[in-house]
Structure formats: structure tokens, C-alpha cells
Design goal:
alpha/beta; 19% strand; 35% helix
Length: 272
């Protein structure tokens, strides 16, 4: 993946530690970044690493003028639910205790990481921690029972995900826990008091129903949510931005979402 889709020029990459959690830190070389994006990588909680997400993180760092931090959380089945989630909560808590301003922090993630962008906030809320400014869930895997209609209608269409392997991966991650646990399947969670969210999902994805359900649940719980369904797109098409125009366009849409938050905050301050 790294060879086929190399990191963009204009970034620097460093290994850091967030307490006991290793991480990658990616920053633009053009100057001091304006914000921090904590990015939770995908891989069904079983695969993936911070290293493999440097190209996408680099593109996000440039588009958002942000430092991007990717925690290397522990993976199932050796470290099953809820350990990957708790590692990411610990990484976020370390940033806060290190002096990071939560108002300058954004969460984002794809697939399992898209679920983490929600579930880490839920844990932070329950612990009384300040929440980040906003979240971005890319192709989120947020319903581990796989009962949504798209699990049947898109099965065999999405080139990167299929129902049967996802069932096996969910079982390996859960390690006997219920797939309806609210932090494993955030469509079942109490989502009140979460900050604004952007959800990206491809129309060809088996996870389409879960993403639309998540957006609906957020709306019901008075969360400001923007759902974008991209026609014909497949699971986490953002990863292919080096060769797929829609991938870079989606990254730019994330940047527009963040700039919209900046404008709303500026207007709010100006009215007081």
C-alpha cells in the first residue's frame, strides 16, 4: 500500500509515545499547524498500523493544516474488546494531560477507526474528560451484528469488504462480548452531547446502512451531523487519493467541514 500510494511531499514523520501507546506524528513542513487531528486507523481491530496510514495522514495534515497523530493501539484477537478502544482513550487522555487544548483537537478514523472516533468520545464523556472539537467517521464499522440492508444488497459489490469475512472479524474482535455493546456498535449508544460530526460513506459499501443509521441516531440525540454518501464509492476510498480523484476530493471535503466550523466559531465570537 505504501509503495503504490506514497506519502505526499511536504510532511515530516516522527515516532512518539502517548504514555504506554506508541504513535506516529505527521506534520506539514510549511509551518506551525493550526490544529491536531487524532486519527484512528482501520483494520477491523485486527489489522493495520500507524505506519500504513502515513500517506493518508500526510494528505490530511496538508489539507487541514494539522498535526496528525495516529495511535498504534493493540489489536485483537490477542487483545480483544474492549482493549483496542481503551488504548485509544488512554492516548487521548495523555494528550489532554500533556496540555493539548481539546478545542483544537479533531478525531477521525476509517472503518473500525470510524467507530473509534465515536466510541473514544463516549468513554471520554463518561470519564468527565473534555471532548474534542469535532469528529469525522470514514466508512465507519458501527454495527457489528450486520443486520442492515446494505449487508445483503452491497455484498459482492464493495471490492474491499464482504459480509462473511466481517462476521468472522467481528467475532475475533469481540472475543465473546455482545455485538450490541454500545462502544463496539455505536449505533446502540447514547450519543448525546457529542460535538459536530461528518460521516463519509460510499454508496457501494456493505457498511452503508450502519453509517446512515449512525447519522440518524446522532440527529435524534441532537448532535450536529453531516452525512455524505458518495455514489459508486467503495470502502475507505480516501486511501487511494494518489490515483483516485474522488479520494482527494473527499479529503478536501473534510477540510471544508473543518473550515466551516472555524467560520461558525468566528461568527459566534463576533456576535458577542
Amino acid at each position: 500500500m505504501l509503495r503504490q500510494h506514497p506519502a505526499p511531499e511536504g510532511i515530516s514523520v516522527a515516532d512518539i509515545e502517548l504514555g504506554s501507546i506508541s504513535a506516529k506524528r505527521i506534520v506539514p513542513t510549511s509551518g506551525e499547524p493550526k490544529r491536531t487531528l487524532v486519527y484512528f486507523h482501520g483494520g477491523a481491530y485486527l489489522f493495520g498500523s500507524a505506519e500504513g496510514y502515513v500517506p493518508l495522514a500526510g494528505r490530511l495534515a496538508i489539507a487541514l493544516d494539522a498535526e496528525v497523530i495516529i495511535p498504534d493501539y493493540r489489536l485483537a484477537p490477542e487483545h480483544p474488546y474492549p482493549l483496542p478502544i481503551l488504548d485509544c482513550v488512554a492516548a487521548y487522555e495523555h494528550l489532554l494531560t500533556s496540555g493539548y487544548d481539546p478545542g483544537s483537537i479533531l478525531f477521525a478514523g476509517d472503518s473500525a477507526g470510524g467507530a473509534l472516533s465515536v466510541s473514544v468520545m463516549l468513554h471520554a464523556r463518561e470519564r468527565g474528560l473534555a471532548l474534542p472539537r469535532a469528529g469525522v467517521a470514514i466508512s465507519p464499522w458501527v454495527e457489528l451484528e450486520h443486520r442492515g440492508e446494505s449487508m445483503q444488497t452491497r455484498d459482492g459489490i464493495d471490492p474491499l469488504c464482504a459480509r462473511e469475512p466481517l462476521d468472522q472479524q467481528a467475532s475475533a474482535f469481540l472475543g465473546g462480548a455482545s455485538p450490541t455493546e454500545p462502544d463496539a456498535s455505536p449505533v446502540h449508544a447514547d450519543l448525546r452531547e457529542l460535538p459536530p460530526f461528518l460521516i463519509h460513506i460510499g454508496e457501494a459499501e456493505v457498511m452503508l446502512s450502519g453509517a446512515t443509521d449512525l447519522a440518524s441516531r446522532m440527529a435524534e440525540h441532537q448532535v450536529r451531523v453531516t452525512l455524505e454518501v458518495w455514489p459508486s464509492m467503495f470502502h475507505v476510498w480516501h486511501l487511494f487519493a494518489a490515483v483516485l480523484p474522488e479520494g482527494q476530493q473527499a479529503i478536501e471535503r473534510i477540510a471544508e467541514f473543518v473550515r466551516g466550523l472555524d467560520r461558525a466559531e468566528s461568527l459566534s465570537k463576533g456576535s458577542h
